[in-house]
Amino acid sequence: GGSSNARKGVYSFDWSPTYRLLAASGVERLVSLWNPYTSSDRPLGTLAGHNASVSEVFYHHQQHLLISCSVDKVAKLWDLRMQRCLQTIHDDGVYRPEDRLSAFAFDEARSQLLTAATAPRAWPLVETAMRAATAGHDAPVIAALYNVNFAQVVSGDESGRVCVWDLSDGSLAFRFHAAHGAKMTCMSFDEAGRRLLTSGNDGVVRVWNFSNGQCLKALRSEASAESSSGHAEVSCLLFLLEGPYRHIVAGGWSRKVLVWKDTRSVPGGVPDDPDRELAGHAEDITAVSFGSPNLLATGGYDGVVLLWNLDSGVVRHSLAAPAAATPREDEARRVGQRAVWRLLFLGQRSQTLCACGADGWLRFWNPKDGEAVWEQHAGHEGEGLVALATDPANALLFTGDTAGCIKAWDVSRFVNVPWL
User: Fold this and answer.
1) CA quadruple 408, 414, 417, 420: dihedral positive or negative?
2) How far apart are CA 232 and CA 199, in angstroms?
């Protein structure tokens, strides 16, 4: 057969019996594809894109991929059929004694690239979707978020699969896997809509570049370090912007409100450990919302809503639903009908706080003095309310229940209700 003519030396090569191609890389910043059954001294093709010497190259035939990694810790995933780059991964970590990636593998079960220097790290693969009907989700969907900047919808399911959909024609643009132990539970965007936040029953909050599936940061707390105890799950997640300050807020089974500062002064934008942990809930935290200025609302499984001053971390008010008419109704509500599943501040209506939950009621609170100003059963035929949204003018309110029913409410006519 022929021989490769790599003038400056070869660092790595791999053979594909499927494509009958030899891939080689070295000091030159190219990946060369050779046919060893010919006598040509020229490669069949070259893959260009690395800015440093390419130290590793290997095939993954099930996904029709060629994976290359350069000495500047940049990995590229190439489509063998089209000979084009599908995804670029940059590891911005600093490793000692040698600042380089030394080991590589591909996890077929989770469709992710594994790299290691001093510790292993997983990089989910972005799956470029075909316009044919490729299945989006195989597990229950836990969230669907609209991104106004990109006119896309990002959805996530319990298995950790994240799908990005083109809203113009409903096609699947791509997808990746966000590993969160056994279950992913919640998602949120940052204020610019460029980063995706996810969390799950492992208690870890992960920050993603959702356009290429790269994990930018993994945020941990004391609860996530003890995930085997069963108290780590994060149930609600929020990114909030208050003046020049940005925060990531999470709540869940630890019963603490975890607050991380989002700052550009550390790699990945966010310190690993929470800036604050606010304690005050007696039961699991199930909902969170933010109202300017510095007003954070968190709801619990026991139906209690706490209003916090975000600056001081002090509870300003503790809100709860009125007691039931009879002891039997109160006991029934106590068993499992108290949980607050969604909270929403109506910024155009005096920052009124709206709450809904397992008992099917809509409740409105005055956050200034902590007084209830209106409540109404939403009439969702015995179903709990698990979704709550509004329009920019806060003229409409949308509720969704556990049976899939959605209702639209005109709240612009609250003309005789104080505070609303």
Assistant:
1) positive
2) 10
